[in-house]
Design a protein that fits this description.
Homotetramer. GO terms for molecular function: glutaminase activity. There is one protein chain. The protein has 304 residues and is of the alpha+beta class. The chain has helices at residues 3-13, 65-77, 98-102, 113-126, 130-142, 151-160, 162-173, 181-192, 198-209, 224-237, 243-249, 286-299, and strands at 39-44, 49-53, 59-60, 195-196, 254-256, 261-266, 270-275. Helix 7 packs across helix 8. The protein starts with a helix and ends in a 5-residue tail after the last helix. Bound molecules: 6-diazenyl-5-OXO-L-norleucine. 6-diazenyl-5-OXO-L-norleucine (DON) binds at residues 62-63, 94-95, 113, 157, 164, 192, 256-258, 283.
Length: 304
């Protein structure tokens, strides 16, 4: 497959849509990013990497981190996690509160904010030094020691995170948060502030394309059956109330973040990460979605 040519074609064909969408401003620090950045990196199973644009520039991965915290939690406690968080699409915005009350404090899935806050609570309970141990986990999967949080983004989120505080307190009222609410939120805000490049993200997500085995190595980070579960959750819940649309248009398991990143995988073939900060009204990158739709159209391959 001529992936480099395909990436060039995609870059040409998305040009008419360049000004569409808005950068996320509800986290003030995210509003400082150049909205016209664009990068993409595709990493194949044969070891080849195909890249274009700002693929070496760090950006805030935001909710993409939810897949990574979920992976660390399931690698530690296995299937017991589903007692505290469900695996159904929510059909609601990522920060919605409504379902949580009538569903008795059990979040619909681990990739919406309420579910990710429960996963954060689990990690705070089981890790000795939660933030450092999480960083170590990502660095070892990606093979890159430079990966870090952005303290400014974490602080900016904390200062404006009233909805997340509401979700955490609601979860606590149903006894689905076991630790101090502020400690859990501090971890959650830091995980969202994680900065990675498209290249680092695609290398990291190779784990999910490879049924739980890390990039360039042989270590089985996740048992195969849990890798399958995480891919299924990405497919059904990775884009909030646009998960159906992403499946329909792209047809790959993936996850978005309000920093404008999207990571997706084609099992046993490749992982891909794309970054473009302008978002559609549902909080997903406009050019990111278009790029991946063109990728599966042009290659003729998706999981469907
Ligand atoms: O909790 C928040 O609002 C952000 N830290 C993460 C939201 C996010 O990335 C949703 N993604 N599309």
């Amino acid at each position: 497959m001529k992936y480099q040519e395909i990436l060039q074609e995609i870059h040409e064909e998305i040009k008419p849509f360049k000004g569409e969408g808005q950068i996320a401003t509800y986290i003030p620090e995210l509003a400082t990013v150049d909205p016209d950045k664009y990068g993409i990196c595709l990493h194949c199973f044969d070891g080849q990497e195909y890249t274009l644009g700002d693929y070496e520039e760090k950006f805030s991965i935001q909710s993409i981190s939810k897949v990574l915290t979920l992976s660390l939690a399931v690698s530690k406690i296995g299937e017991r996690i589903w007692e505290r968080v469900d695996v159904e699409p929510s059909g609601d915005p990522f920060n919605s509160l409504v379902q949580l009350e009538y569903e008795q404090g059990i979040p619909r899935n681990p990739l919406i904010n309420s579910g990710a806050i429960v996963v954060a609570d689990i990690l705070v309970s089981i890790l000795d030094d939660p933030k450092e141990d999480f960083l170590k986990f990502i660095r070892s999967i990606c093979g890159n020691e430079s990966i870090n949080f952005n303290p400014k983004v974490a602080a900016s989120e904390k200062a404006t995170g009233f909805r997340n505080a509401a979700l955490a307190n609601m979860l606590k009222s149903f006894d689905n948060i076991k630790n101090d609410v502020d400690t859990v939120l501090d971890f959650y805000f830091h995980q969202c502030s994680l900065e990675m490049t498209c290249q680092e993200l695609s290398r990291t997500f190779l784990l999910f394309a490879n049924h739980g085995t890390q990039y360039g190595g042989t270590e089985q980070i996740l048992p195969r059956r849990l890798g399958k579960r995480i891919n299924a959750i990405m497919q059904t819940c990775g884009f909030y109330d646009e998960a159906g649309e992403f499946s329909f248009r792209v047809g790959l398991p993936g996850k978005s973040g309000v920093g404008g990143g999207i990571a997706a995988i084609y099992p046993q073939q490749y992982s891909v990460a794309v970054w473009s900060p302008r978002l559609n009204p549902k909080g997903n990158s406009v050019l990111g979605m278009k790029s991946l739709e063109l990728l599966t159209t042009k290659t003729g391959y998706s999981i469907f």
